[in-house]
Amino acid sequence: MATETLTLGKALNAGLRKALENDPKVVIMGEDVGKLGGVFRITDGLQKDFGDQRVIDTPLAESGIIGTAVGLAIRGYRPVCEIQFDGFVYPAYDQIVSQVAKMHYRSRGKLNIPMVIRIPFGGGIGAVEHHSESPEAYFAHTAGLKVVSCANPQDAYVMIQQAIASDDPIVFLEPKRRYWEKGPVDLDAPLSEAYPLHASRVARAGTDATLLAYGPMVRTCLDAATAAAEDGRNLEVIDLRTLSPLDLGVVYESVRRTGRAVVVHEAPSNLGMGAEVAARITEECFYSLESPVLRVAGFDTPYPAARVEEEYLPDLDRVLDAVDRTFGW
Amino acid sequence: MAKGDPGAPARGRRAAPRSRKATTGDPELVQLLTPSGERIESVTGPDGTEYRVDFTDEEYRGLYRDLVLVRKLDAEATALQRQGELGIWASLLGQEAAQVGSGRALRTQDMAFPTYREHGVLYCRGIDPIMPLGLFRGVDQGGWDPNEFKFNMYTIVIGAQTLHATGYAMGVAMDGKTGTDDGEAVIAYFGDGATSQGDVNEAFVWAGVFNSPLVFFCQNNQYAISEPLERQTRIPLYRRAAGFGFPGIRVDGNDVLATYAVTRHALDNARHGQGPSLIEAYTYRMGAHTTSDDPTRYRIASEVEAWQAKDPIARMKAFLEREKIADAGFFGEVDEQARREAVDLRERVLAMPNPDPDTMFDHVYPNGSPLLDEQRAQFSRYLESFEGSAH
């Protein structure tokens, strides 16, 4: 088997399958995750092979999904909850923030809630409203939750297994517009030797400026770096991967070399992940900076109608425009 | 009655004076002990279920002891709050029978999910009554081990725990722990106000759809802080169950015997795989919502007095006296035990140390976080910077 070329969606499916195989306490629950395999087919075929006690089609209520998963976790299960779309997670917000995140703390460590909350997030698929949002800052701001996002099929396959194996409650953000992008996946790589879940990684080495992204924007930044190379600019791209806790050691090391940093995300810029990253870079790398850390992000509007989302979303040109501005300082 | 599971009632029955159909008297209320302390031998519920208890004299006395102790400890906690030793206290005054009756109906293997007022159930589960006082004193956020005592932490967010109970019950069924006499059942506590919450209604849906081994135990104490029941519902709460496809029944929540009988029956149904049910324990919050509340602003004294006449302890005492199950010596001994336990509780609360500030960084994540490690270290350095100075 070894290495196969898979889409990011299929890689997630393979990772979920492996998690179900490895631990009988893992259960998948959500709306339409059974026979249908999820609206994005991420759980395709799993109920057929593992049964409807392991892959559970739930009633259509998100707070109920997360709230019952808390009870299952107290009982000793490891629930993997699918929220169908980013914009539908809010009915579960109380259970996530007040219950999932705080149960371990309130019990002084006596209870673990080893839950994974999978959320397809972000725009770029021409969807109707509430289907293209980027809610990561809400969750990254909440103590007791960890938040990660995968950006390529190999990471999708490994990270989902790592998240399920972790005793921490983890919000797992899947870049839905990248579900169909393909890449090599080593299906036999042992989890114990895998790159750590809560660690950033250089996705493309460079020398002139540092681009920071996660999830769907990693691809955009890699494309921007390719375009910049044609203009003679050598950009480093870092895939943050973990949004809570942030892992910025590799970022500081990079920015101390390049002196310039641009943070890119789809979520609105105001109080977004970029604000935290920029503040921390400024604290740690102040004397190395040649320009302020800039942000390229969604605007502080509600997510707009699909026919204008290409203008709303950061793209290659807006990223390169920001890079230019860091050099114009 | 000893702490923990009283088990199945022992043999050696006392003949009760009379029985009646639920269709006589109050048609909507299962009652085995009238407010004046008269025993009703059995009551037949609307579905034909016959509710009865057959306790020994010792068991009757045990229930009385539970009721008195629970009330006394609760009163002590209220006093401690008034003296500034607790930040707040949510008194169970008036609801002792609903809590002791249901709490004693639980078998050892059953799991309970409380609100923040279930001090009586907590007592029945064998948890040190000081535990919730740590929460309300502000030195911790709970403290007991939910799995050790089969009693989850208190839940402050209204109704959220009903979903946890439902998920836990789903897990019980998935573990194959239903269908036998020693099967497991789960009980979810909540109040009349909570029945308006989405989470509670979602829990009803889930439990019904998955046929979960769960008893929804609603203590209808007539008020959600200031809002009367009429602001939450236009039908009796127990009838809501019908819409979700499982049985609902109303019991006199000030009657410890009826509450025990109804809860035990519902739990046993659940453990045998017959699915969820809703119990509405009809009772009254004699005190304030919490020590921060002033009920004189929203309810009249005559209403409280009417419920005073239905007091759960007075009726049990009248029954024990009338049937000569207990004498003055027994009542005096129980009062003395309650006094001693209250003094002990007070002394231990006053001795509770404030937590070390550094402990606020503990147990945020099972696997820790480098961000928190850094903040803890910074905070520690900050505190050390004052060492040796006058401030």
Characterization of this structure:
The complex is a heterodimer of chains A (329) and B (391). With 329 residues, chain A is α/β, with parallel strands linked by helices. Chain A is 36% helix and 21% strand. Chain A contains 12 helices and 14 strands. In chain A, helix 2 (46-50) links the parallel strand 2 and strand 3 (55-57). The radius of gyration of chain A is 19 Å and the shape is globular. Chain B is α/β, with parallel strands linked by helices and 391 residues long. The longest helix of chain B is centred in the first third of the chain and has 26 residues, at 57-82. Chain B is globular. The termini of chain B are far apart. Classes of the chains: A alpha/beta (329), B alpha/beta (391). Chain A binds chain B through residues 27, 53, 58-59, 61, 63-64, 66-77, 79, 91, 94-95, 98-99, 103-112, 114, 143-144, 146, 166-168, 244-247, and chain B through 113, 140-143, 145-147, 152-153, 155, 157, 160, 162-172, 174-175, 198-199, 202-203, 205-206, 209, 362-367, 369-372.
